[in-house]
Each structure stands twice: as C-alpha cells, then as structure tokens.
Amino acid sequence: xxxxxxxxxxxxxxxxxxxxxxxxxxxxxxxxxxxxxxxxxxxxxxxxxxxxxxxxxxxxxxxxxxxxxxxxxxxxxxxxxxxxxxxxxxxxxxxxxxxxxxxxxxxxxxxxxxxxxxxxxxxxxxxxxxxxxxxxxxxxxxxxxxxxxxxxxxxxxxxxxxxxxxxxxxxxxxxxxxxxxxxxxxxxxxxxxxxxxxxxxxxxxxxxxxxxxxxxxxxxxxxxxxxxxxxxxxxxxxxxxxxxxxxxxxxxxxxxxxxxxxxxxxxxxxxxxxxxxxxxxxxxxxxxxxxxxxxxxxxxxxxxxxxxxxxxxxxxxxxxxxxxxxxxxxxxxxxxxxxxxxxxxxxxxxxxxxxxxxxxxxxxxxxxxxxxxxxxxxxxxxxxxxxxxxxxxxxxxxxxxxxxxxxxxxxxxxxxxxxxxxxxxxxxxxxxxxxx
Length: 436
Prior knowledge:
This protein is α/β, with parallel strands linked by helices. It has helices at residues 11-19, 27-37, 52-66, 85-98, 116-124, 133-141, 158-163, 167-175, 192-201, 232-240, 255-267, 281-293, 326-333, 354-364, 428-435; strands at 42-45, 76-81, 106-109, 126-131, 152-155, 182-187, 206-209, 220-226, 248-251, 272-275, 298-301, 316-319, 343-349, 370-372, 375-377, 383-385. The chain folds into 2 domains: 4-209, P-loop containing nucleotide triphosphate hydrolases (Rossmann fold, 3-Layer(aba) Sandwich), CATH 3.40.50.300; 220-399, Rossmann fold. The chain has a 7-stranded parallel sheet with strand order 3-4-2-5-6-1-7, sandwiched between helices. The protein has a 7-stranded parallel sheet with strand order 10-11-9-12-13-8-14. Strands 15-16 form a two-stranded antiparallel ribbon. The radius of gyration is 28 Å and the shape is globular.
C-alpha cells in the first residue's frame, strides 16, 4: 500500500500530514503528486471530496522548498485561482496547514472585504497566493500585483469558473503569466470550452481522472420524496425533527428561496442560517463558522456553495429543490459522507421537477428510491395521502384523474328540478329594485 512517505514529499510536509492524521493518499493524490514533483503540467478530472487540494498543494510546497528564494514585493511564486470566496478560503487554509513547518508566506484575496490588508500582504511578496479572478484583476489593475515572477499556477474547479462566466478574466490573467511555468487544471467535468482552454494553456500535461462526476459517492444513501411544492417546507421541518439530522445542508435554487427556507426553519425552532452570493463576506464567514462549530445545525445554501463547503460531519444533504444542471446534484450530495463517513441525501421533487429527476438518474445511471407523499383527490374532491407506488412517480397517484369531480348527493337529498326556460337569477337591475 502506498503511503505519503513513498511519494517524495518534503519532510516538513510529511510531519504536517501526520499531525493531521493523514496516512494513506487517496487515488488522485497517489497519481498526481509524483508528476507534479517533476514539474509536469497536469489536467485533473476530479470532483470535490477526492482530496485534490492536498494533491496539488503538497507537491507545490515541496518544490518551493527545493528551490528556495525570497518572494519579491508585489509578486507571488505560486498562484491558485478559485471560483468562490469559500473555496478560496479553504484552499488558503489547506496551504497553511500543509506548510505549517515550512515558513511560507500564504495569503488569500477575494471580493466582499476591504483592500487594505490584501494590499499590505501583496506588498511583502508571497510564496502562495489564492485568489478569485475578479479581485485578482482589481489588484493587478491598481499595480498591487505582478505575475511575471510566478512559476506555477493552479486553476481549480475550472468548469465552475466557466459556469460563473470567468473565462474572459482567466484569459486576461494567464496572458500576464510567464510562458515557462507549471500549470495545473482541475475540473469535475470536461465540457468543450474547458477542454479548449486546457489545450491552450497546458504543455504536454499528465492527465489524471478520478471518480467521474456522473458517479455519486458510494457512502451516500439517496432517496427522493415526491411532494407538492407548497408542502415542501412543512416536510422539511418534519424531517429535521429526527435526531439523526445532526448537521445538515439544505440546497435551494435561488437566493431568495434560501432566505425564505432559513426563516421558516428558524420559526420552527431550528438553528439555521442561509448562505449565498448576496450575503456579505462577514455574514457568509459567520454562517460557516457557526456550522462548523455546531452552533448552526442547518445551513441553507445555493449552488454557489455546493463546491465550496468542506465541513466534516455533515450527516444529511436535503435538496429542497432539484438543481437544473444534473452535475450539480452530484456536487451537492458530495457535501456529506466525507472523510470516510456515511451520509444521506434526500431530494424533494414536485410535478414541475420530474424532468430534472430524470436527468439526474440518466447522468448517474441509477434509479433513486422514491417515497410518494403527494396528496391525491378522491371522488369527493378531498385530499388523501397517495399510495407509495414506484411506477406512479410521475403520473397521478392511484390512477386518480386530475379533474376534480363534483360531490355526490347525500342520502335523502332530492335532485333540484331544473329551472324553466328563461327563469334564473334576477338581473342586476331587478335585484337592486327588490332591495329598495
């Protein structure tokens, strides 16, 4: 069995990994670290939760130690680009953790916070800079950072960068990098746009592919609850009453929806916070810190957080609304069952989302077990729980037609005789005259 000590990492890195309890490398770490130590370019196809941050951080730190030099002012030796603030912060923390005995200068910059501390950190020069593309370009435009001295660059979550519209900013950033450099691309999927970008920016790369995005985590138990949209909040509150839901992430499609769901949970007595792009950085950091510490038991998030939340001990993921992009489902449920643990993913699906569920099952090549909690109208127009039939997932349960039938006559009730022709309710003028 391969161990980290077999991979050629620096002794200080091995000490840091041991202090974190890391012993055996994951598949992507075992495959990526050796060629990266040789200075090769790399194209990694891997989703979050596979250990890819360690796969690129530890060899890059080792190479910095092998070729020591003092960072020059307003420059960085290694640049890591991340799509979101949360992911950038987590990558920065990982570099600090793995390099704790290496004495490196590491900084993270992103939007939503003041420029002052970031300018100060850049002015001293850095060994490693982790940044979001927009804020990085702001600093470059103001002359706070130059990239002509950067020897290695990492583009993490490249497909998510594409989804967020960062392709043009990325091209601007890469145009300022030296021609001779080590370049690493990591992406969960490989759409044509990312493949084209990788071909332009990588030189004879080693390709490492681990756990394709169509494969969900093996330790995640999945199920779908068929239910009307208007009853989802009630069902969510009922689910969270179960003590097994120790630490849960609830995903919505919209920012406003996340706020509404979080408010409903708080009103029901649950410790919940919402996190999305409209929240300030302080609000997002406070919510994540509360979630990690256990003060917040439920984090309600949009897909911007699907790849940026790396918290151990998440017992459940609930898809309050199914994602419009099937791959996002895999990323969402990957927030649980991390670090060897088990987890459960529960998805609500209403009538309008049935095609989204089909798309997810087609991508993942599986049929997700379902429970039918929809209410079916009976002959009197009353609503009763539908039977749980696997073959009635997308139709009207129990074969009941969607048309509401009129209520039957009660026993002894006489049928009302039809009005004679021309007889009916009085016209408006006649009714007013009678009232006078």
